[in-house]
Every structure is written in C-alpha cells, then in structure tokens.
C-alpha cells in the first residue's frame, strides 16, 4: 500500500522541530506508519508536517518519494530548514520534480494531485489537518474525489493535550 502525506506548516504549527507540538506530531506519525506499514510514502517536502513525515520515514526505514513541486522550493526558507530539507532529499528513495520552472502557487496543487494520483487504488493518506480551507483542505478534497481515504491528525487536539 502506498501512502501520501499532506499537512500544515508554520505558522499553523511551530517552526521549531523540537517544539513539544512537533515532537507529538512525529509520535502520531510514527504510530500510524507502524500500524499501516506502507511500502512507499509520497511526501511533498514542505516545511512542517511534510518534513516531519519524511523524518519518521527515515527513522523507520520506510522508503519515501519526495514529490517536490518545483526545483528550488526551499530557497526562501531559513538556512537551517534548507539544510534539513537537503539532507532529507538525499535520503529519499526517489525525488520527483512535479513542475518545471520557479515558484507559482498552482504548482503546490499540482504536487498534491500527483501524490494522490500516485497512491492509486488501495492507497491511503495521512493529513495533519485542522479542518480549515487552504492547501491541505484542497488536497484532501481532491483525495475524496478520487475515493482515497486518509487518516487525520488534529494539530489542535495535540496542542490541547500538552
């Protein structure tokens, strides 16, 4: 079974990957991946949830495909985050640049469609989602239209339980 991941990024979740909320998110991802045992995870590699998902895949030895919306997506990020991103790309089983050229907002949607379509029949998703509109909500709406089920991690519930 293939699994795609989508979720919030700062400022909806903390910047610091060692913040207790981010640590708790990674623990939730860890439990879910152990339960599901995917053969491959498709990961959009954005700051926040995507990179947390990739880190957990590395820790568990689960192959992941970095589905990057365009080359250079990291260029406007803080230096420390860029460095972690490049380290994770090196650990990916495959790196796919979904679109050519530089930044355009629509490329994030194309990346999300690519991930959902790539998990195929029987695939699933995991989402860090608070129910709001935006990129994550749009990705999940597309997944629903393709009859792809997903598991939701609620960032508000995590924050309230700390």
Structure write-up:
- The chain is α/β, with parallel strands linked by helices.
- The protein has six helices and six strands.
- It has helices at 20-36, 49-60, 79-91, 106-119, 135-145, 155-160; strands spanning 2-7, 40-43, 64-68, 94-97, 124-128, 149-153.
- A six-stranded parallel beta sheet has the order 4-3-2-1-5-6, sandwiched between helices.
Question: In summary, what is this structure?
Answer:
The protein is an alpha/beta fold and 162 residues long. It is 45% helix and 18% strand.
User: Which strand order does the major sheet show?
Assistant: 4-3-2-1-5-6
Which stretches are low in confidence, meaning pLDDT under 50 for 5 or more residues running?
none
Number of helices: 6
Estimated structural class: alpha/beta
What's the oligomerization state?
single chain
The coarse silhouette is: globular
Instruction: Report the average pLDDT across residues.
Output: 96
Report the order of strands and helices. EHEHEHEHEHEH
Biggest pleated sheet:
6 strands, parallel
Q: What is the helix content?
A: 40-55%
Number of strands: 6
Distance between the termini: 32 Å
What is the radius of gyration? 14 Å
Tell me the strand percentage band.
Answer: 15-25%
């Amino acid at each position: 079974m293939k699994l795609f991941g989508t979720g919030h990024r700062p400022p909806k979740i903390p910047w610091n990957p060692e913040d207790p909320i981010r640590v708790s998110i990674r623990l939730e991802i860890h439990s879910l991946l152990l339960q599901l045992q995917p053969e491959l995870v498709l990961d959009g590699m954005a700051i926040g949830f995507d990179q947390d998902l990739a880190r957990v895949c590395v820790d568990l030895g689960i192959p992941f495909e970095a589905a990057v919306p365009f080359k250079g997506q990291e260029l406007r990020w803080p230096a420390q985050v860029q460095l972690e991103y490049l380290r994770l790309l090196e650990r990916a089983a495959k790196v796919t640049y979904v679109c050519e050229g530089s930044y355009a907002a629509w490329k994030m949607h194309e990346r999300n469609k690519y991930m959902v379509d790539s998990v195929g029949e029987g695939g699933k998703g995991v989402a860090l989602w608070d129910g709001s509109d935006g990129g994550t909500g749009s990705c999940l709406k597309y997944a629903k239209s393709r009859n792809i089920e997903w598991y939701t991690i609620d960032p508000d519930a995590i924050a309230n339980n700390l």
